[in-house]
Design a protein that fits this description.
The chain is an alpha+beta fold. About 15% of the residues lie in helices and about 30% in strands.
Length: about 300
């Protein structure tokens, strides 16, 4: 009995002693704890308060109205490299050249000359019923410039031809050939005349030149192409000077022309030596203007 109660008393005394110790400790003033003894709970609470304060400060700063001037960024200029448009080269539209009119030759051995007139040399003859292309004409349409397959053109009298499609030269667009381009390449076998002079006697002009020696076989005289004032208009007049007797082809030769003085354009002329192969180069004749009759005489 005594053995079991002792420990109980000891236990109670120990509990009372422990309680007194605790109360004494509680009544003593608080002493600062070293950093290593800081309670974890206290550290967490301080951290939480700081975080809350910082959050409130950030929120306050963000909500304050701050005037901000916004400078608009310039609109970028975009330079576009234009795409190349492909160039399409089209074949040119070819307008067909109208076919020149055709004529049929009416007479056998119709003469086809070097120029539009009987003053020009015979070039070759055309056979009846043959066809020729008409590539030109003279001013009044009395002569046609024709060619065949050989491209060797010549001049034939219009009255010796008949247009295959009917009508006359006025029914076709036939160009007028400039007399300056009538004659072919000049021959060099002989020289053109020398000592060429011209004198006016009223409405008549006399042309003088020195004869050119030629053989009897080659001799064909002289050709003078003149643009004369007649009837108030300038008229083209080709003229042949030819002496059948070769013995007369000596000294000074002369040919007279009717030439009025009331035309706006000036009269003029040129002279060639003719031989059976063709013509020499020409010499321009110093054509006299209107005025008093000169007293000069040609010098042989």
């Amino acid at each position: 009995m005594s053995t079991s109660l002792l420990p109980l008393k000891i236990q109670r005394a120990s509990a009372v002693a422990l309680l007194l110790i605790l109360l004494g400790a509680a009544c003593q003033p608080a002493t600062a704890l070293p950093p290593s003894s800081t309670p974890v709970l206290q550290t967490v609470e301080v951290t939480r308060e700081v975080t809350r304060e910082v959050s409130r400060e950030v929120t306050r700063m963000v909500t304050v109205d701050v005037p901000v001037t916004i400078t608009p960024s310039p609109t970028p200029v975009i330079s576009l490299t234009p795409s190349l448009t492909p160039t399409i080269t089209l074949s040119p539209t070819i307008t067909p050249t109208p076919e020149p009119p055709k004529v049929a030759i009416l007479l056998d051995h119709s003469p086809c000359n070097f120029g539009p007139g009987g003053a020009y040399l015979y070039k070759y003859g055309l056979l009846a019923t043959s066809w020729m292309w008409v590539i030109g004409r003279n001013d009044d349409g009395s002569w046609l410039f024709v060619e065949g397959g050989g491209k060797n053109p010549c001049w034939v009298k219009t009255e010796y031809t008949q247009f295959v499609r009917g009508g006359d030269y006025t029914a076709y667009n036939i160009p007028v050939v400039d007399p300056d381009f009538i004659l072919p390449f000049a021959t060099n076998l002989y020289m053109p005349p020398t000592g060429v002079q011209a004198f006016r006697y009223g409405d008549q002009v006399k042309v003088f030149w020195n004869a050119v020696w030629m053989t009897e076989d080659d001799y064909r005289g002289y050709l003078i192409e003149a643009w004369l004032c007649q009837g108030g208009q300038l008229v083209f007049k080709p003229t042949l000077f030819y002496n059948a007797d070769l013995t007369q082809n000596t000294g000074t030769l002369m040919l007279a022309f009717d030439d009025e003085t009331n035309c706006q354009a000036a009269s003029h002329a040129r002279i060639y030596t003719s031989e059976k192969h063709g013509y020499t180069g020409y010499i321009s004749i110093p054509w006299p203007a209107s005025g008093p009759t000169p007293t000069l005489t040609p010098t042989p």
